[in-house]
Structures are given as C-alpha cells and as structure tokens.
Protein 1
Amino acid sequence: MALTRVMGRRLETSFLTDVELNEIGFLSIGKNVLVSRKASFYGMSRISLGDHVRIDDFCVLSAGMGGIEVGSFVHIAVYSSIQGEGKITLEDFVGISSRVSIYSSNDDYTGEFMSNATVASQYSRVTHADVRICRLVLIGSGSILLPGITIGIGAAIGALSLVTENCDEFYIYKGNPAKKLIRRSKNLLKMEKDLLESLKFPF
Ligand SMILES: CC(C)(COP(=O)(O)OP(=O)(O)OC[C@H]1O[C@@H](n2cnc3c(N)ncnc32)[C@H](O)[C@@H]1OP(=O)(O)O)[C@@H](O)C(=O)NCCC(=O)NCCS
C-alpha cells in the first residue's frame, strides 16, 4: 500500500506514487494519474497518458511500434488489455469497463499460416491496423475490439460485444458481431462542456 492523493485527499491505496509513476518511463504523463501497482506495461516509452487517468488492477497495456495514446479523463477498469503493433488511441472521456480487450494486431485464422507469438515470422502472418476510440465513448464489460476499427464520438458498446467494424457516433451497439441498437443521447456534449468549464474556475 502507498499513500496517494485522490480528489485532494491523502488515502492509502494500491496506486503508484508520483515518484514511482515517473520511474516507469512513459512517453508522457499528465496530472492526477492513478495507476494500480498491479497493472503491467510493455513498450512504456511509446505509451502516453493524459490528465485524470485511472488504470486499475490487472490491466495490461502493451504498446507496439504505433504506441498507445490515452487522453484525459480516461478510466481503464480491472482486467482490461490493450495491445498490438498498430497505434491505439483512447481520446478524452473514454470509459473502458472491466475485461475489455482491444487489439491492433491479429493472427491469420484461415489455416494458411501458423500462429501465436512463439512462432517465427516467416511461418505466420500477423496483420496490424490502428484503433481509435473517440471521445465520450463507453465500452461495456467483456467486449472485444478488433484491429482497424474506429468508434465514433459518443458511441457506446454493450457488454460482451465483438466489434469488427467502425461504429457511428452517438449510437449504442451490442452483440456478436456488434450491431447498431439505438441512438445515444447527445446530452453528453453539454455535460462535457460544463465539466470542462468548471475546471477553468475551480472553487
Ligand atoms: C447495450 C445496453 C446498453 C442496452 O441497454 P438497454 O437499452 O436498456 O437495452 P435492453 O435491456 O432494453 O435490451 C434491448 C435488447 O438488446 C438485448 N441486449 C441488451 N444488451 C445486450 C448485450 N450487451 N449483448 C447482446 N444483446 C443485448 C436485450 O436482450 C434486448 O433484446 P430483445 O429486444 O430481443 O428483447 C446494455 O444492455 C449493456 O450491455 N450495457 C453495458 C453494461 C456494462 O457493461 N456495464 C459495466 C460497467 S460500466
């Protein structure tokens, strides 16, 4: 356990201290970042974290050459993993529920090639594609996002969805494969504006 600051109060938590966070070697790190000491990071020099970010226990962020860019006010909940060679971007106010898997690399499943990370590259065919999760997106628990997808601003993904294609902004998607369900309210935009305004004039 360590002493850290949560909403201005000093608390005993399992989050890394600021000194420990700086020692990890992230590309960049913002203010008020809470990272569990039980989370794991690979390719840290290609991972950037914005302000007000929280990464919970047993999350794994493994950055390939494309890197992982996490915006501000982003929460990555327990047991989630974010990995692959392509660039993965999580914009501001993105919520990743527990046990979400986000991939920017994929093995070939046809049987024409061998697979898995222990096999030399001349026997396998791994493809890479960037993933972008735009601002105000919420990803439900247990969902899987495949390489190459973009999830538009304000979209939400239901629990246990398999996202194989781009998702339009301000729609709710769900299922395997994920399909459009209904529109999502744009009131979020007003809330976002109010929240950001309140930070300009803190009481
Ligand atoms: C997708 C979701 C937002 C839809 O909520 P909703 O609008 O209240 O939808 P309903 O419960 O009325 O369900 C509508 C239909 O979709 C189905 N459905 C709902 N969620 C589903 C899901 N995740 N996957 C597949 N089908 C789903 C329902 O069975 C129902 O089907 P029907 O029309 O055949 O009866 C919600 O079910 C969900 O998955 N939320 C994510 C919760 C979560 O992960 N929380 C973690 C902490 S943030």
Note: The longest helix spans residues 187-200.
Protein 2
Amino acid sequence: MQQTTSPGSQSDSALRIRLQEALTGTSFQLVPASPVTTAAADWAMARTPGGARLVAVPAAGRAGALAEFEGEWSESNGVQVLVAPLTARNAAALRRHLPWLVPRSLPAGTSAGFGDRLGLATPGHVQALRAAGGSIAPVFAQQSIREMTRTGRSPQAVVDDATWGSFEAGWTEGQGADADHLKTAADITACAAAGFTMFTIDPGEHVDPRAESAGPADLRAAWDALPWEQLEDSAPSMRARLAGRAFDVEGHRVSLDEGGLMKAAVKYGRAIAHVKTMFRHVCDVKAGQPFDLEVSVDETDAPTTPAEHAFVASELRRLGVRWASLAPRFVGRFEKGVDYIGDLAAFDADIRVHAAVARAFGPYKISLHSGSDKFAIYDIVAAHTRGMVHLKTAGTSYLEALRAVASISPGLFRAIYEFARERYDQDRASYHVSATLDGAPAPTRLADADLPALLEDFHARQILHVTFGSVLTASRSDGRRVFADDLRSTLQAQPEVYRACLERHFVRHLRPFAGR
Ligand SMILES: [Zn+2]
C-alpha cells in the first residue's frame, strides 16, 4: 500500500540498543517487532508489570514534539523517556507521528478483513499476513455496530486496538478500517469520526423478499409502489431503459425480461435507494477524504442472481454511487465458522458470472462475507475474481482466542463453553447457523486435554461463535465481568500462544489468495 511517510530506515540494532539503554533499571521488556524511529523520537511497545505501554525517547531537543501524549516522563542515563498508557488520546497522537498507522482507503486488488472482537488479535493477524506472503491489503479494525454493541466497544476503541496491535507488530504497510454492516446514517457519522475508511452499507432490511414468490398482480402493485422519486426515475423510464435488456458480460448473457426486471426492481429497488442515501452521507462526513464503500446484500434469504446483480450495479451507477466492493448473496449456505455448505459446481457457476458482472460494471471487488473457514471454495473464488476480491472474516479470531485459552486455562474455557451452551438457543437468532446442543459434546464428558478439539467440532464451533456477546458482557452483581477480563488477561499473559493460533488459522485463509 502507498505510504505518505516511511518508517525510519536506521539500523534496527542501533535503535534497540538506544531504547534498551533508556529502559535500564526497569523491568520493562521491549516487544521485539515494535521499535521504530522518526525524526522526533524512537518508539516502541514495552511489556511492564502494569501492562503494555508505549515508550518514546525523543531526539535531542525534540521532547516538545511529544507534548500531546499523556504519560510519565523520567530520565535515565541522561536521556528523557516517556512511558505512556495505551489510551485513546495516545493512540491519536501516535498516529500523527507514525502515519502508516492511520487507516486509509484500500488499493485495488486482493484485501482481507479480520474482525477482532477482543481487540487483541492484530499482532496475530500481522503474523499470518507475513507468513502467507503475497500482497494482501489488510483491514484489522472491522466490526459491525451489532458486534460493537454486543461486545461493549466503541468505534474509536475498535480503531485504537488495531493501531496498538499494528504498532506492536511493527506493521508499516498500511491498513483499512471497515465499519461493517452499517444500517443508519448516525452509525456512519460515528464511525467516520473514529477514523474508519471503509463503509459497508447493508441495505438488507430494504430488500423485499416477497418479490421471490409474488404473483403477477402483487408484483405489479409492488412495482408501482417503488420509491420512484428517491430512485430519481419513473416506472416507464426504467422499463424503457432495462426491460428486455441483455448485458453481455464476458460471453455470459445476463438478461432482464419484463418480468425479471420487475422482480429485480421490487426485490432491490428500495435497497438501491437506501444505498444511494447512505453513500451521499458518507461523502458528506468524509468531506473529500478517500474512502471505500462496500455494498452488502449477503444477509438476505434468497441468492442474488447475476441478472439482479447487474441490475443493482447499473442502477447504483446511474445514481452516481461509487463503490469498491459488493457482496452478493451467493448460492449455497455461508454459515458462521464452518465450511461452505452446498454444491461446489453450482457455486463455481454462480461466482463465475458475478465476478464477470463486477468487472463489467466496475471493476470492483467481489466481497466474500462470512468468509472464514470456507476452505472448499477459496480456490474457486480466487480463480474467478482474478485478484479483485475482499475476503471478510469476522468471528473466528475470537474462536482462536478460545482455542488458546483451552490450552492455557482449561477451567476458564470449560466455564465459557458451559455458559455458551446455555445461551445458544437465544443468541443464534440473528445468525446463519445449524448447530444443535445435542450435536455438541457435553462438557462433563470431556477431559481437559480434549477441550481444544471442541474448536474442530461443527456444533461446538457454531455454539461458541454466536455467543461471543453474551460471554464478553456477562457480569456479576458487583459489575465485574464473569469471563471477559480473565479471557483477556489469559491471552495477554502468553501472547505468543494466541498469535500462533491466529497465524495457523489465517494462513490457510490467505494462501489461496496470496499468489494473485
Ligand atoms: Zn456480512
């Protein structure tokens, strides 16, 4: 990714020695990948008895450049040292000094979104990216408003956790930040203010599923009732423009006869109007700053046909919407945390044409939502999208956290699994999952050593996947968290265990896309 400023090129060892000297007499441990130097200071992350801290040693005469940080100054061997907590104010100040930590719009080409519900996964994501090779542009900060609500995190906290994680891992190659599944203008405003650069508009509530089954009279009535004014169109002009139209996309004939047009318009017309409104709102709040818009209709019941995709794209274009990626609802089932369920030949035929439509009307990227663990289709997706693809994973970094906890602290993991089973029937409501409680091993029948294997069990995996919000926010009567604090401190005590789990998991996701 393009950089506005490059990190300092000074030799790593000289930099480490200077920082190490500045920390003489403390028990602080430098995080090895983190040291970086700029004209104003040497910077690093350090583990301290009180938790992780930012350490900065200003260049001679430059201490004033660090005035915006909050923290404690000391002097050691004649050099001044700032030790600063990982606060929002310090994250913002650090981004001003290290501009490669500022989220930015993504380049064309392959990109991947890594959701991180705990805010501790970025160093592991970086390790996976490095191990996978290739040039996949990452999105570390990626949460939907629903996920933020369920985990009690603010948009700013999500961005800041990715800032600290990237800094800790020494990631200087840029990153996007995805405000996922946005449904309202107010959420866009809040996420833009926090520094998000990718806005995934989910108009799913405006997709009309009745179009699939409505008879001719009902379809006609729904067509007449479309919000024509918002669509800046009229029924006769849309019919004249599109009925009987055939798009030739790379040899595939994608056509809309009169009935097909009415069905597509009834199904997606209100969604298109909504996306237009949201897009214009993003333009307003970003005020000329670059951003990436994603249009996602993946969470609808019926698959998006290639003709419907072409209809949506041509109408969004007519309305002046500019988007970087689009997530159709593909054939088959994209359940959380498990492999693709469906006919691979049918999926191949489906995405082949969707990718061609995306090239013909863009080019823009095809976005693969619920993209984690879909190992059966990665090669197919990579082949047809030819590098114009965004792979979006969300909850499996949390599952990898649980895998790490299962090996470090079996008792904590067992308690989480028992609680998740109690919550599953309620929490599954808003997700595409088919696991059953009976299908998952009962906790009483498992020895500690068997617990990590639950993360390979279809049923246990989905049960753990969809209950993250309940687990992370469960509180005792005195307000303390039942699991969340122990979960975080367990992972932070042995960060290399969590990083290794994430690397192993994500390398398998990234490799199929890394060579293109
Ligand atoms: Zn999605």
Note: Residues 258-286 form the longest helix (29 residues).
